[in-house]
Amino acid sequence: MRTIPVILIALVLSACTAAVDSGDAVSPDAPDTTMSTATAMPPQIADFRVKEVQVGDRVLTLAIADNPSLRQQGFTGVTDLADLDGMLFFWRHDGDPFWMKDTLIPLDIVWFNEDGTYKDRASMVPCTEDPCERYFPADGLEFRYAIEAAPGTLDYITESSTIEYTDD
What we know:
The chain is an alpha+beta fold. It has 2 domains: 28 residues, no CATH class; 134 residues, Jelly Rolls. Helix content is 18%, strand content 24%. The protein has 3 helices and 7 strands, in the order ααββαβββββ. Strands 5-4-6-3-2-1-7 form a 7-stranded mixed sheet. A hairpin with a 2-residue loop joins strand 1 and strand 2. The longest helix is centred in the N-terminal third of the chain and has 20 residues. The chain is globular, with a radius of gyration of 23 Å. The N and C termini lie far apart (60 Å).
């Protein structure tokens, strides 16, 4: 009967040794690297995909809104962008106007054409009741990409800037 507890202890010790040998165990003094590879997201958009996107001479970390429900949700209810630089809105056809209904923070927006070239920009303000202002490029809705970000974040973008995005 004593062999069963001895076997169990031996199995537990060998499992612990295997974990330490394989690098699975973490020392209490070891730095936590799990957050360094993850992007902190506002809880309202925690289910959005996040991609690094080349915009002009910078790489931005953007939440991706590439279908009607995600584009409609946008930054609704968000008060802090956390680790995000902003949100990329993408259409497979000409874009739609933007509005700030139930968006709690001011945002800047930059639109880009289908070929990735700069289209236009605007500063948008929150709206709590209808009718809310609609935002779109001065010359119409012929665009494929838009980036929303905190005011000033996109100031580096000029008329010669382009966006490089692949929808995968």
